[in-house]
Amino acid sequence: MATQIYAALVLSGKNIEHSKLTRCIGLDPTKQWKENDQILTSKLTYKHDGWMLSTNKIETLDIQEPLEQLFEKLNPVLSKIKEVISLFNLEVEIQCIVYTEEPNSPALWFDKKIIKIISELNADLDIDYYNS
């Protein structure tokens, strides 16, 4: 398997009204969940409600590529996202998920425009790396 990476914006909080959040942002989420929903097939559950918009997995060794795809979707509605973060008191996270079997690791660097958007959103940055 070649290295595959996807990026996601995750908004989480208490008592999220998913339909209202989606309407306010103007983008349909890739995934959404409620507190105590089961996480995939594990016995773990979500601690908060959540709304996620992600890219598809892409084959690349450049972590910037899926982030750029994500921010292309987000840029037209960035001001709306900032409004809902404040309005609904949401936590914000940008996720980069890396799946690889290859000996070469992806480049883990971020240009100024990526860092600026993460900062503007007051977001945490989570990088998960899975090596099979």
Give the structure's gist in a few sentences:
The chain has four helices and six strands. The chain is an alpha+beta fold and 132 residues long. Helix 4 links the parallel strand 5 and strand 6.
Fraction of helical residues: 25-40%
Quickly count the helices: 4
How would you sum up the global shape? Answer: globular
Strand content: 25-35%
Task: Compute the number of strand runs.
Answer: 6
Q: Could you give a short account of the major beta sheet? A: 6 strands, mixed
Q: Structural class, from secondary structure content?
A: alpha+beta
Low confidence ranges: none
Distance between the termini: 9 Å
**Whole-number radius of gyration?**
15 Å
Please, how many domains? 1
Please tell me the overall pLDDT: 92
